[in-house]
Design a protein that fits this description.
Layout lengths: L10 H20 L17 H10 L1 H13 L10 H24 L3 H16 L4 H6 L1 H8 L4 H14 L3 H17 L6 H13 L3 H12 L7 H8 L4 H4 L3 E13 L2 E15 L3 E4 L1 H8 L8 E5 L8 E9 L4 E6 L20 E6 L7 E12 L7 E4 L11 E4 L4 E6 L9 E5 H13 L1 E2 L3 E2 L2 E6 L9 E7 L12 E5 L2 E2 L3 H8 L7 E8 L2 E8 L1 E2 L4 H8 L2 H9 L1 E6 L8 E7 L4 H4 L7 E10 L4 E10 L5 E10 L7
Parallel strand pairs: 5-13
Antiparallel strand pairs: 1-2, 1-4, 2-3, 3-6, 4-5, 5-6, 7-8, 7-10, 8-9, 9-12, 10-11, 11-12, 14-21, 15-16, 16-17, 17-18, 17-19, 19-20, 22-23, 23-24, 24-25, 25-26
Length: 633
Amino acid sequence: MTRVMPRPAAARLSLAVCAVAGLLLLMTCAAAPKPAVQYATPYADLKLQQLKDLFATDPARAIEAGVELLAAPASGAPGPSREELVSVTALAIAKLGSEYQTALAAQDWHGALSLWLSLRAVSADPRLADIVARDHALGDIATEPSREAEFLEKDAEAFFSKGLVTAALIQYRAALDAGLAASKTFSREALAKWTGRALAARDRVTLERISRELKARAEGLPPAALEFLASKDPLSSMRKGVVTLNIDKGIKIEQGMGLPDRILGSGFYIDAGGYLITNYHVIESEVDPKYKGYSKLTVRPADSPELRLPAKVVGWDKLLDIALVKVTGSPEYVFSLGDGTDLIPGQRIYAIGSPAGLENTITSGIVSAVGRRILQTGDIVQVDAALNPGNSGGPLVDEAGIASGVVFAGLPQFQNLNFAIPASWVSRILPDLFRGGELKRAWLGLALAESRDPSTEEKPGLEVVYRHPQANAGIERGDWLLGLDGEALKKVPPAQGIMLRRSPGSLALVEFSHNGTTLRVVRYLGERPFIPLESAAATERHDLVFPALFGMAVNQIPGSLFEPEAYTISRVWPGTVADEAGLSENDPFVLRRFLIEREQHAAIIQIDVKKRKAGFLESIIQIPAALDIPDFL
């Protein structure tokens, strides 16, 4: 939304309108208390004992602290000596190695993989070469081939031993992909074993993946598996695998009358043990600690509308809007969840769900577009199938009968448009959802822009436009992110996909460019807040958050007593909020209001600007921007 009024011809009216608008905005936005943000403690301020305490409680962070202090130029200020820093850093690395051995002994393959990746990152940081050379165990990790496929395969076996077949099959597919990247060959016996398991589970996606592995060896699937893949389940059968979720929230009062407060959504089975997928926003009241009211979740089977099956939420991810629910009883149909086959614009798809509670509803349409950046992480698919509230959480099915996405419908800001979360993103987080609880995301604390270096016009890359105050210094605005854990990066979603493999509290190898110099450093991965800018935008200096929120960099210029925040725009990133508002480089403006609307997850600025594109005609405009931007890593 942009409102423009020229001055001085309508100066009095302009000021009156702005005063009223500002008052209303202050009443609706600024009355809420500012959320607190926890700032990272600069490593340069750490004393030796603090570093030792950090080593005892969080060796991964102590490693990052130690290496940053070792690489910093001598300041002459009192602090740990180089010998003391080397000693504490070496002890922290050794402790991380000990935790890795403990995870191996306990057959905690998920934890072992996370620790192995951390140690691998440590071994690749050139600043730690001397310490790594003295640690024989770490030296072995540095030289051995990737163990990711091995750990994923063992984790898949652990899932299967617990009866979590779908999680096991998805993790085994990930192991095959990791093995392909590492040139690891899986045994013929293991492939035959997992072929039988996938066939028993009627998992078409895993059978197709194993088939590709066998074809690379000039081999093939057994006849029974080939016959199953050649068949196709009718939509009438698939309907039996879709259910209606009913969340009873008691009674709500409207205009003095008590009315039932219920939420309806859809879900679909992805495991014969009674596990189904739905949207997080459908079951939010079941797990949100901020919700204090009554909430009871039941499931209504497709062919038995009189039944109400008890259910519980097993795991959930707020960022992708996905939840895993366990239902009592065995499903009549289980969907195969896709794992990465890209949907194509124009491709026919089907949606099954319960719009307005009308179960067993099938609608069809096409994929309208892919790669939409609407959620805070990943990308989504736009579809033109008829969807309504109640469809949320249902499957998006392709012509082969694969669940290629999870529908979510009814976004207010996108009227009459419908979307689905691609199964490729859902399958990445599903094993962690089976582990239970809320999925905790690792992050670097950087907001990125897919852009070109304006000084060199190099190929598109990831430019750092903002560092969150919870992230430690070292990678700053103006740097360019080049790679993560050895994988080159050009786009934000693939970078976020890599982060899905990592756990909070671990270490990653980050390659970035600073003033034209390429650096490879080990960085600590913290735990990502749900909406990083919600607290930061309310407490940070305004000019620091402008690039992430509005897509413009600014320089402060002298203001006046009544208008102290005066700026000139130094850069506008194409396609951003500032660009769409008609702002451009060298436009001067005065910031009159900066407001945070927490319920709408939005920031609003009111500025008095002289646009170069409008002949420097002075105008007052109001620009909103979403706080839940999709560009954080």
